[in-house]
Structure formats: C-alpha cells, structure tokens
Amino acid sequence: MTAANSTFSALGTTIFEVMSRLAEEHQAVNLGQGFPDEGYPADVLEIAADQTLHGWNQYPSMMGVPELRQAVAEHGRRFYDLELDWRTETMVTSGATEALAACLLGLIEPGDDVVLFQPLYDCYVPIVRRGGGTPRFVTLRLPDWSFTRADLEAAFTARTRVVVLNDPLNPSAKVFSREELELIAEFAIAHDAIVVCDEVYEHLVYDGRRHIPLMTLPGMRERCVKVGSAGKTFSLTGWKVGYVSAAPSVLQPIAKAHQFLTFTTPPNLQQAVAYGLRKDASYFTELAAFMARQRDKLATGLRQVGFEVLDCAGTYFIDVDLAPLGWTAGDEAFCQRLVREVGVATVPLSAFYEEDPLTTVVRFCFCKRDETIERALDRLDRGLAAMLSSSADRHD
Ligand code: PMP
Ligand code: GLN
C-alpha cells in the first residue's frame, strides 16, 4: 500500500495542463489555458533582469519585499481608495494560487462550511476539502450568470465561515454588479464570514466598467481578503507573483499558512512587480483596451463560423454556447475533437463545476496577438463544419 491523500489522489490532472499538452501534441493553436502571447511590459522585464544580475537573490522577508508591499498598498489607494497599512495588511505570495491556498488553509477550521460560486476556478475546492471545509455551491445561471437571494439562503448555513468570490469571474467572464456584491456582503456580515476575493482579473474589465473590490463595500473592509496576481496584470503568468491584502487579524492566520507553503517568492521578480504596480495609469487602461480589442476580434470570428457567443465583461476568456450548432455530445467531447481534428485548443466549462455541470459551453482565451487569433479562426473556418457534419454522420 502506498501513501496518498484521498482528496488529491482522487483528482484528475487540471484541465489547463491537459489541454496545453494536447495542443502541443496536435500542434493546435492554444486558446485553452489562459496565458498571453503578446504585450509583456519591457520595462518590467528589464527591472527583473537587472535585479537578477545586481539585486538581492537570497531569501527575502517572508511577507514580501517592502517595496512590493508598499506598492500593493499604493495600488489599493490609487485604484480603489483603499487605505492599507503595508506593514500589517499586505503580503506577497507565489502567485494567486499560493495566496488562495494560504487563505483557505489558514482560515478554514475542519467542520466549517465554505460558500463558492460555480462555475469556479479549479484549485478552490480541493484546498477547501483538504482544509476540512464543506463546500456549499451557488450555481450561477445563464444567460448572465445570475443568482438570487434564495440561492444564497440555500447555500449559507450556521457553519458558514468563509466565502470565495472570484470577480471578474473565470470562466464566465462575468463582472459582479454593485447590487450583487451588496447582497453577498449582506450574507457575509449576517453569518460573520470572511470573503476570500480572487481579483486576479481586476484590471481586465471592459466597455467602461469598473472593478469594485468587495472590500470597499460598507462593513466589508475587515472581513475581506483581496488577492491579486502580477501574472494577469503584467501578462507574465509564469512569474507567479501574487499579493494579498487584508485586515491584520485576518492576514495573520493566512501568513501562518504561507510560511510553510512557500515562505517566500523570488525577490528579483517582486522588485519588478513593485515597479510595475506603480506604472502610469495609462499602462492599465491600455492593457484593458488591448484585451477588449482581442475579445472583439475573436468574438466576431466565432460568430462568423456559427457559434453563439456569450457576453464577456471581463477576464481574458470568452464563452460560446454549442447548442445552436446542434452539438449534443457534450463540451468535453467537443474540445477533444476540436483540438485533434481542427487544431484549436479550448476548455470545456464542465471542468469548472463540482455539481450538476453545464455541458454545452466552451471557453476560448483571447489574450493573444492578432496572428494567433487569426490562425485559430482560419482553422475553425476550414475545419469546424467538417467536424460537425462527421459527428452528425456518426450519430445517424
Ligand atoms: N484565480 C483565477 C480565477 C485564475 O484564473 C488564475 C489563473 N492563473 C489564478 C487564480 C492563479 O493565478 P496565479 O497564476 O497568479 O497563481
Ligand atoms: N488561470 C488559467 C486559466 O484559467 C490557467 C492557470 C493554470 O494553468 N493553472 O486558463
């Protein structure tokens, strides 16, 4: 008998890894896993290179280098009017993934209930379970990924201690409205729960929308953890530099978990991200403008080849509904065949569900240069109809 933790050993390999490896194997255009292939800020890269050659490359402070923690606090003030004490209310992590693990392991006590909205990012639930929490799901409903007061009433219990909110939401491309946030805040306050706010796409909101951190709502400053990621904000997903902001009493147990997860994050990258977070406001508006253009380009092409494209208010993902194509074999089969036969990698939405998965929606990633999007659209234009008709033949 070999040792294995049942929570993790019961899991498959994450869909992002699966689709990226399939994309490589089939030389597909990879619109599955979310990573940009253009738009890396050259000055941020230069600082990282300079810091690698000339800076401090030994263990930095466990909570992060002061420059980055100060920059996180300044960023909170500049964009959201949040007053954060960088010494007691900020912490640097190895990506948002580590931040989320530290939050969930640090805040959940076995027996606690944790409210999550699905579809959801796939790393949350295993960590909730490993922490001894019981996930309670609020399932968002198409067409606008909405929920009601009754949905929250059904999910919150007397044991609810933690809520996880991903806003803007991957994979739904939803940006929660102020009214929706107010409703979540009302329930969090009534149940004395902490809300872990995964806001990695905070600067990727479109069409004049503004991201509203839940932490800025009345009564929420002391009961929210705000998680950000340099991977998304600077189009450098491989860097894995994340940051956490929370009131001191909330941050302390999270820091206790962080010290034994990764303890620190490469200091050269932290210095570069500190510089990046202080960049001129135009950097952040141009980033969103670029992504919105790529979204529109991909959406137009997807409509032309026959997909029904769902609204995309934020993130770098856009979803399509397969139903109008007459496809009935499910999203997973669709993605498997698309990558093999058409040469375009995508992600099935069912991978983002724990209960009653939606199986008719597929996610495309648009944080790509023009040529990548054009190549994918060209392949869809030439191969999708054949794929659909050959499956119709097979079903007949
Ligand atoms: N949360 C969400 C919603 C994400 O899409 C991602 C994707 N990378 C992460 C967290 C993880 O971020 P990081 O790469 O900084 O760990
Ligand atoms: N967040 C990225 C996505 O949703 C992937 C991150 C990962 O590969 N773990 O595509």
Task: Please render the helix and strand layout as text.
Layout: H1 6-9, H2 15-25, E1 29-30, H3 42-54, H4 66-80, H5 86-89, E2 90-93, H6 95-107, E3 113-118, H7 124-130, E4 134-139, H8 149-155, E5 160-166, H9 178-190, E6 194-198, E7 224-229, H10 230-233, E8 242-246, H11 248-261, H12 267-277, H13 281-304, E9 308-309, E10 317-321, H14 331-342, E11 344-345, E12 347-348, E13 361-365, H15 370-395
Parallel strand pairs: 1-11, 3-4, 3-5, 5-6, 6-7
Antiparallel strand pairs: 2-8, 7-8, 9-10, 10-13, 12-13
The chain binds 4'-deoxy-4'-aminopyridoxal-5'-phosphate and glutamine (GLN).
Largest sheet: 7 strands, mixed
Low-confidence stretches: none
Overall number of structural domains: 2
Give every kind of bound small molecule, once each.
4'-deoxy-4'-aminopyridoxal-5'-phosphate, glutamine
For the secondary structure, the number of strands is: 13
CATH-defined topology of the largest domain: Aspartate Aminotransferase, domain 2
Write the CATH homologous superfamily of the largest domain. Type I PLP-dependent aspartate aminotransferase-like (Major domain)
Query: For the terminal residues, how far apart are their CA atoms?
Result: 47 Å
Strand order of the largest sheet: 2-8-7-6-5-3-4
CATH class of the largest domain: Alpha Beta
The CATH architecture of the largest domain can be named as 3-Layer(aba) Sandwich
Query: How many DSSP helices?
Result: 15
Name the helix and strand elements from N-terminus to C-terminus, one letter apiece.
HHEHHHEHEHEHEHEEHEHHHEEHEEEH
Q: Please bin the fraction of helical residues.
A: 40-55%
**Structural class of the helix and strand makeup?**
alpha/beta
Rg computed from alpha carbons, rounded to a whole number of angstroms: 21 Å
| Percentage of residues in DSSP E strands | 5-15%
Mean pLDDT: 96
